[in-house]
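User: Fold this; tokens only.

Assistant: Input:
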Amino acid sequence: MSKINELAAKIGNGQNPLFNELYGTDAAVLKAQAERYRTQLEDFKATFGSEEVALFSAPGRTEVGGNHTDHQYGRVLAGAVNLDNIAVAAPNGTNIVRIKSVGYPQFEADLSDLAIDESKFSTSTSLVKGINARLKELGYNIGGFDAVIEGRVPEGSGLSSSASFEVLIGAIISHLFNDGKLDPVENAKIGQWAENNYFGKPCGLMDQTACSVGGFITIDFEDPTQPIVKALDFDFAKTGYSLVITNTGGSHANLDSEYALLPSEMKSVAKELGHEVLRPLTMKQVVDSIPNIREKVGDRAILRSIHFQADNARVVDEVDALESNDFQKFLGLVIESGYSSYMYNQNIYAQTQENFDSKMAEQGVSLGLALSELVLRGKGGWRVHGGGFAGTIQAFVPNDLLEEYISTLEHVFGEGNCHKLFIRAKGAIKVEL
């Protein structure tokens, strides 16, 4: 804990080693981040009055490899990004958590009652209660605190603003009440548990883990109760590339059936071959079975299963490429993953009958990928980002093509819809200057 005026002085103009790790080296960006932190410090003092506070940051995340592999107990590759949620926080000596989140109504969570309340599903209050309930159950200390939170992880960007919020809350409780003893992977599991049980949303563990651990990570979900998480020793900042996430527009409304069909079709193939999910099977087993199961499951289910087998194996190759510092090989694998998603997984535009007429002309993701290939062919990598069907794409862009790439994509999708990012090494942390 430090005094607000001391923290503001240490932040200065943002020129410090930790800010460089979190936000890069651009002087204008660092100055803006410094102003951002000082604004939240002043807001906290005006709102809650305390002079002794701590600073926290939790990044968003990007899926890099393994598209729609986690629900079949497969492998994924993900990375933390430099867009983050930050918090100014201090214990308040009560059983009440009070949070002012910039742009949203202030709310409270009473820790004296940690029972699941389905009427509060899908609220931040329920998430905070769920995180505290799980921490208490695991033997950690909990307590009331005040916090001002300001977020720069855009909602709907596929960068997982919700997971970033969850592990930020976990980091705050860890440092305010448990001397920072909460392991990053445990923090991720607690956030997932709270989202599943208190928020009412089933989700995997990739998002929370990437946000909590930081850097490039790979996760193997072969045993979904004990996923294997590995952090990769790779410095993205030295590649000479930027990561660009582009919002191609299009609504996710009425796409629930598209998302539901994808895992169910994969599972239908697995079931015909004696398994619940595809992970225990090999590509050869899937291909050998086609004549016997084709009429039962349909061709698209088989194609999606082929995608799973290929992309699940591709994650291993991507990890090997990064650990061998062979970034060009990695970029080629990113492109392969994107082609597989387009041709086999078929999650680039809506196809179900209920959406066919209204959505068929809406192919923003397809158009974004086509434009990416026109600019980056032979010089970068591009693929769908996240669930697909609408929304965002991802590209690794050499810095000498960055201006051309962004201007080309924003010419079509609108100014401000390209987000220039990098993979940040730090996960959910206490900001110690």
